[in-house]
Automatic annotation (TrEMBL):
<dbReference type="InterPro" id="IPR027278">
    <property type="entry name" value="ACCD_DCysDesulf"/>
</dbReference>
<feature type="modified residue" description="N6-(pyridoxal phosphate)lysine">
    <location>
        <position position="49"/>
    </location>
</feature>
<keyword id="KW-0456">Lyase</keyword>
<dbReference type="GO" id="GO:0019148">
    <property type="term" value="F:D-cysteine desulfhydrase activity"/>
</dbReference>
<feature type="active site" description="Nucleophile">
    <location>
        <position position="76"/>
    </location>
</feature>
<keyword id="KW-0663">Pyridoxal phosphate</keyword>
<dbReference type="Pfam" id="PF00291">
    <property type="entry name" value="PALP"/>
</dbReference>
<dbReference type="InterPro" id="IPR005966">
    <property type="entry name" value="D-Cys_desShydrase"/>
</dbReference>
<feature type="domain" description="Tryptophan synthase beta chain-like PALP">
    <location>
        <begin position="10"/>
        <end position="318"/>
    </location>
</feature>
<dbReference type="InterPro" id="IPR001926">
    <property type="entry name" value="TrpB-like_PALP"/>
</dbReference>
<protein>
    <recommendedName>
        <fullName>L-cysteate sulfo-lyase</fullName>
        <ecNumber>4.4.1.25</ecNumber>
    </recommendedName>
</protein>
<comment type="similarity">
    <text>Belongs to the ACC deaminase/D-cysteine desulfhydrase family.</text>
</comment>
<dbReference type="InterPro" id="IPR036052">
    <property type="entry name" value="TrpB-like_PALP_sf"/>
</dbReference>
<dbReference type="GO" id="GO:0034011">
    <property type="term" value="F:L-cysteate sulfo-lyase activity"/>
</dbReference>
Length: 338
């Protein structure tokens, strides 16, 4: 596997640290918990989309783009990192935000990631929940082409075979890091949404014959749909890498029991997980993805899913800025309106 064949622009701080979570491990009574800090990728407070954008932006520039277009939910971390990448590369950026939650309070609609989208100079437009966001982006791109611009459309979450290369690269990085530390990783757990992170990890870990199983904790779709999305993208990513079809359905596992009422809607487990990790480790998770991912990990630990002596790595995918969009969820705001 030679990733250097693919155009890439460095945007992030890598390798990201792989650290033990000693107090959390003790608090939960094992397994041995580790954290891979992809919240520390550096670009505009970091997160997992930076790895994907290194390959996506290189492709955009190779194709002569002058503006990036992407989409996400109102508090999209992907949108924020895309706006920052565009700023760094001197490209314009237009973001379409979908109202997936119906929350109308100004913290949610204007603070957190939305504030940063604007700080990075992106223009922002909004669409109602349930809109066909890919079609909406294509329509905006068509209009821009008519006006002489050269748009490059990045799918939601940056999840296509080009973006997923970022997590093939992360798989390689993690395996090297663990072997340097003499660490046998028994399980890799992370929050899965638009599927590119898990697809890239699975493709990379299978291609490396690492034997490390990946467990995605879903934040939106039900399990059959999430697993089908990840598998399809992992297969396309292997093909893009020029590798044989080594990824099988058994390599793709998602647990979607921790979504709660829906994407971006807080759950009790998420709130507890965010508070616990903040208090035990001094690490901030986020309300939409890593908080629900950690809630799933904690619940599975309590159910004996992992051996006490196993080493379980939680991939922290970032998103802490989203906390500022959800002050009420943590019972910390004076106005507990929602
Ligand atoms: C986008 C995102 C994820 C999910 O990654 P996908 O590649 O979309 O599955 C997880 N955590 C955070 C913080 C994210 O922003």
């Amino acid at each position: 596997m030679n990733l250097a064949r693919f155009p890439r622009i460095r945007l992030g701080h890598m390798p990201t640290p792989l650290e033990p979570m000693e107090r959390l491990t003790k608090h939960l009574g094992g397994p041995k918990l580790w954290i891979k800090r992809d919240d520390c990728t550096g670009l505009s407070t970091g997160g997992n989309k930076t790895r994907k954008l290194e390959f996506l932006c290189a492709d955009a520039i190779a194709k002569g783009a002058d503006i990036l277009i992407t989409q996400g939910a109102t508090q999209s971390n992907h949108a924020r990192q895309t706006a920052a990448a565009a700023a760094k590369l001197g490209l314009a950026c237009h973001i379409l935000l979908e109202d997936r939650t119906g929350y109308a309070d100004p913290a949610y609609t204007e603070s957190g990631n939305v504030l940063m989208d604007r700080l990075h100079g992106a223009s922002v437009s909004r669409r109602p929940g349930g809109a066909d966001m890919q079609a909406e982006m294509e329509a905006v791109a068509e209009e821009m082409r008519g006006a002489g611009r050269k748009p490059y459309v990045i799918p939601g979450g940056g999840s296509n075979p080009v973006g997923a290369l970022g997590y093939v690269n992360a798989a390689q990085e993690l395996v090297t890091q663990a072997s340097d530390m003499g660490l046998r990783i028994d399980h890799l757990v992370h929050a899965t949404g638009s599927a590119g992170t898990q697809a890239g990890l699975v493709a990379g870990l299978v291609a490396l014959n690492s034997g490390i199983p990946v467990l995605g904790i879903g934040v939106r779709a039900p399990k059959p749909k999430q697993e089908a999305n990840v598998l399809a993208l992992a297969e396309r990513t292997m093909a893009h890498l020029g590798l044989p079809a080594l990824v099988k359905a058994e390599h793709v596992v998602a647990n979607c029991d921790y979504v709660g009422q829906g994407y971006g809607i807080p759950t009790e487990g998420m709130v507890e997980a965010v508070k616990l990790v903040a208090e035990q480790e001094g690490i901030l998770l986020d309300p939409v993805y890593s908080g629900k991912g950690m809630a799933g990990l904690i619940d599975l630990i309590s159910k004996g899913f992992f051996g006490k002596d196993q080493n379980v790595v939680f991939l922290h995918t970032g998103g802490q800025v989203g906390l500022f969009g959800y002050p009420q969820a943590f019972g910390l705001a004076a106005d507990a309106a929602r």
